[in-house]
Amino acid sequence: MKLTDTIQQDGPRLKGVVQGYAGPNNPFGGSDAMIVNGRFAINPQFEWTGGGYVSTAQDLARWAKMIYEGKAFSPDLLPEVLKGVSASMLGRETKYGLGVIIRKTTLGPSYGHSGFFPGYMTDMMYFPEHKVAVAIQVNTSVGRSLGKPLSRVLVEVMEVIAAAEH
């Protein structure tokens, strides 16, 4: 399984990235639009722990499936990755493992991670009881404009998938 739509984040011009919106008067440059004349309004390399890559929701779902099925690294490491400690700031009964948010859902546990960059938000979840990974990306970082958290959207998508399995 290859990540065909993932590129290195190596400067302010990133091919194929859609316009993101951070809201007017945001602390990340002050303008709503994050791409101006083909360049990011801020240096995207400031993003810290995101790994320096830009990806699509499809590739993120592929990556989640590889990680949480033990195909991205030695499967012997997976139990350590998924150990987790309480992380109530991420949600009631939520745990955080080694780079993974472990959430209780109506469909059993999910493993994944969310992400934020000015003008963009992302979430991905893998549902081990179904062996299905889903991901979503939106081109706003104004979460209140979405109406519900992205993790809730992913659970709802997975509920539809699970219903179709039966």
Description:
By secondary structure, the chain is of the alpha+beta class. It has one domain (7-165): DD-peptidase/beta-lactamase superfamily (Beta-lactamase, 3-Layer(aba) Sandwich), CATH 3.40.710. Helices cover 19% and strands 25% of the residues. It has 3 helices and 10 strands, in the order E-E-E-E-H-H-E-E-E-E-E-E-H. A 6-stranded antiparallel beta sheet has the order 5-6-7-8-9-10. The protein is globular, with a radius of gyration of 17 Å. The protein starts with 6 loop residues before the first strand and ends with a helix.
Write the layout of secondary structure elements.
Elements: E1 7-8, E2 35-36, E3 39-40, E4 53-54, H1 57-68, H2 78-81, E5 85-86, E6 95-96, E7 101-105, E8 108-117, E9 120-127, E10 132-138, H3 150-165
Antiparallel strand pairs: 1-4, 2-3, 5-6, 6-7, 7-8, 8-9, 9-10
Provide the CATH architecture: 3-Layer(aba) Sandwich
Can you say what the CATH homologous superfamily is? DD-peptidase/beta-lactamase superfamily
The main pleated sheet reads as:
6 strands, antiparallel
State the share of residues found in helices, binned by percent: 10-25%
Helix and strand composition category: alpha+beta
Mean pLDDT: 90
Radius of gyration: 17 Å
